[in-house]
Design a protein that fits this description.
By secondary structure, this protein is an alpha/beta fold. The chain contains 10 helices and 10 strands. The structure holds NADP nicotinamide-adenine-dinucleotide phosphate.
């Protein structure tokens, strides 16, 4: 009998966390949602249940509790929080798949906080030596989840990691979310994926590059984040998306 996997989404109320949660609601998963602000997590779980009555979703109080029950843990938080959470779930996450979606940009968006010979995902793997860390979703903007199919083609989403089975499991998950998963290589490829996305963020800030090139008529602000008031791209709207 096929057993449902349980997925903990830590940072579920954020741009990415909520987009991932909603996109997986139709899948054969049990979703455990968690973030700092519990009433907002409860509200999100309720919205998902209303929109998708078949969804198996619940709000849960802390990242430790959510991770305890999960087979797959998605850390949909900023890089700094990802590192802190890793400390608290280290034992619980042993042998489990942990997905890093972070782009470790600095506060001024002028560079990455990680050294060139590493990546957010590899740093996470160091903190969780007994977990199977997989990089995924860092090259898909939160707004992409609304339109994962453009001109009849699924948008590509890169996946990287060292464990074959975990790569396969996360590729399935990426597919369920609506994207075309492409296994880009082992976990060290995360350096390229994170740098690639950093370049894209910078070009979009400078030239509206991604929106003009990929999304056609959609304006940059709404592309980055549909919660952002439409208008010219500001550091704030990028901050929400980075
Ligand atoms: N936005 C994008 O388009 C995009 C694209 C690719 C990758 N990413 C990456 O995705 C990650 C999240 O980005 P985002 O734009 O979704 O950020 P966001 O909107 O600011 O959301 C962050 C989420 O993390 C939660 N959080 C923060 N610290 C936490 C902690 N210690 N324990 C539990 N939850 C915590 C927040 O909960 P509270 O609000 O309750 O504090 C919130 O739900 C970042 O690493 C970013 O680089 C973003």
């Amino acid at each position: 009998m096929h057993m449902k996997s349980t997925i903990a989404i830590i940072g579920a109320t954020g741009n990415m966390g909520s987009a991932i949660a909603k996109s997986l609601a139709n899948g054969s998963y049990r979703l455990l949602l968690c973030a700092n602000d519990f009433p907002t997590v409860q509200e999100l779980a309720q919205t998902i249940k209303t929109d998708t009555p078949s969804a198996d979703v619940e709000a849960i109080v802390c990242s430790r509790n959510a991770s305890w029950e999960a087979d797959i843990i998605i850390l949909a938080t900023p890089y700094q929080a990802e590192q802190e959470i890793a400390e608290t779930i280290q034992e619980i996450a042993s042998q489990k798949i942990v997905v890093s979606i972070a782009n470790p940009v600095n506060e001024s968006y002028s560079g990455l906080v990680t050294a060139p010979d590493t990546s957010a995902a590899e740093e996470l793997q160091k903190r969780l030596p007994h977990s199977k860390v997989i990089k995924a979703f860092n090259t898909t903007f939160a707004a992409d989840f609304a339109t994962p199919v453009i001109d009849g083609k699924q948008v590509d989403a890169f996946v990287a990691g060292n464990d074959e089975e975990a790569l396969q499991t996360v590729s399935e998950l990426v597919k369920t979310a609506g994207f075309n998963p492409i296994v880009a290589g082992d976990l060290s490829v995360s350096r390229t994926l994170e740098t690639m996305q950093f370049l894209l963020i910078q070009l979009t800030m400078k030239y509206n590059y991604y929106t003009l090139g990929v999304q056609g008529s959609q304006d940059t602000a709404s592309f980055f984040n549909d919660k952002t008031v439409a208008g010219s791209l500001t550091m704030t709207s990028v901050k929400l998306s980075a």
